[in-house]
Design brief:
Shape: rod-shaped
Order of helices and strands: HHHHHHHHHEHEEHHEE
Distance between the termini: 73 Å
Number of helices: 12
Number of strands: 5
Radius of gyration: 44 Å
Number of domains: 2
Strand content: 5-15%
Helix content: 55-70%
Length: 408
């Protein structure tokens, strides 16, 4: 934030330039009266007034043409030295201001060149046209010191302003990056919740539809089985409502006093998942190879949802009576394969290959660093293969029994 006089100078540049020129004109005339006691003051009032007016008047163009103003003020200052005036800061005032403005608005190379050019001009003029014959230090060291001051100050101010501008630019970029990152995280969270809702709704509705169709088919021939299937249909819809409530609960604010969210499902509930397809007429065989180990929550949920979606697709799109789920544990990854030996119509096959279910499964696998492949098998049916990384969670017990194949 700028201080009041800086704001005034920025808003009233013409007024400030006029006051500066008038003050420097007075200082120029005052400086022309300074001389050593043994020296005779130069009798050149007219040329002195003309040089002072030209040097100070050129300052009105210092903001737009700083190089030209430095050249004019340097020539006027050298002319004052040639008349016999002592080159004090009062006479050099217009040149000092011009050099400061040049250092403030241009690069270091231009400023350095202007400084040495002005100093050379003053020194050469003083040595060649000095009518008084003053000592050489007064002709070189004094002017050099006074001209070096505005160059150093102007360069320092310019560098400071550039630094402040760079800091502000970095702060703006960091703020913009934080906003983009926040929007990206919100979009990712929405996609994750959308995948959860899709998996829950698609799975339970497919099961409910299959159970309802089976019950309608057995209504006249096997009423007892129909009643059992309808009872399981009620459980399917209740489970769907519970999972939807848990998923939608992710959108609640942290200070909501509602019921706690249900834990995320995982491969520990695989038996319940495969068993739920029995009433839909799909027999699922589960085979485990290798030594099971604890999975990270993200990988566990991903594996469960991929199996759920793959079996749901078998129920909806494939005319299959059986499916096989194989879990193969390796040292650093888990390979999950879901296959069926059914057949599908062309439309259903296209939907299964390009629909949102496979897209969601691929996104889930990529989100935990895995990969997913899906396609038709040569011997018939459809196969979904997923490779998920295994992250160390807990040490594996050395006496763990070898897993056996099970058929729920």
């Amino acid at each position: 934030m700028s201080i009041p006089w800086q704001r005034y100078a920025d808003e009233h540049t013409r007024t400030v330039d006029t006051m500066t020129a008038a003050l420097l004109f007075a200082c120029f005339l005052l400086g022309s009266e300074i001389h050593f006691p043994h020296e005779k003051p130069p009798d050149a009032v007219g040329p002195t007034l003309a040089l002072a007016a030209l040097a100070c008047g050129s300052l009105f163009w210092q903001r737009g043409r700083p190089r030209t103003v430095v050249a004019v003020t340097a020539l006027c200052t050298a002319g004052a030295g040639a008349l016999g005036h002592l080159l004090t800061p009062l006479i050099m005032g217009p040149l000092i201001i011009a050099l400061y403005r040049l250092a403030l608005g241009t690069d270091r190379r231009t400023t350095r060149f202007a400084f040495f050019a002005a100093l050379t001009l003053l020194a050469v003029t003083a040595f060649l046209a000095d009518p008084v014959g003053r000592p050489w230090p007064l002709k070189t060291i004094g002017p050099a010191a006074w001209l070096l001051l505005p160059v150093a100050v102007g360069t320092a101010v310019r560098l400071r302003d550039a630094y402040v501008e760079a800091v502000q630019a970095r702060a703006e970029y960091a703020e913009e990056s934080r906003e983009k990152e926040a929007r990206h995280r919100v979009a990712e969270e929405r996609m994750r919740i959308a995948r959860e809702l899709h998996d829950v709704v698609a799975h339970h509705l497919a099961l409910a539809n299959a159970q309802a169709g089976t019950a309608a088919h057995l209504a006249h021939t096997h009423p007892e089985q129909m009643r059992r299937i309808l009872s399981e249909l009620s459980g399917t819809t209740s489970s769907a409502l519970r999972e939807m409530k848990a998923t939608v609960g992710l959108l609640r604010q942290t200070d909501d006093p509602d019921l706690p969210l249900a834990p995320s499902p995982g491969l520990g509930q695989l038996a319940d998942l495969t068993g739920s397809f029995e009433t839909a007429g799909l027999s699922v065989e589960v085979a485990v190879e290798g030594m099971p180990r604890p999975l990270s929550p993200g990988v566990d949920l991903t594996a469960y949802r991929i199996v759920q979606e793959a079996l749901t697709n078998v129920t909806k799109h494939a005319a299959a009576g059986a499916a096989r789920v194989r879990l193969r544990y390796a040292v650093d990854h888990l390979t999950l394969t879901v296959t069926d030996d059914g057949t599908a119509t062309a439309a259903a096959s296209t939907f299964a290959s390009q629909g949102f279910g496979l897209i969601g499964m691929r996104e889930r696998a990529r989100s935990v660093g895995g990969a997913l492949d899906a396609g038709h098998r040569v011997e018939g049916g459809f196969e979904v293969t997923t490779r998920l990384p295994l992250y160390p969670i807990a040490p594996i017990a050395p006496t763990a029994p070898e897993p056996e194949d099970r058929n729920p």
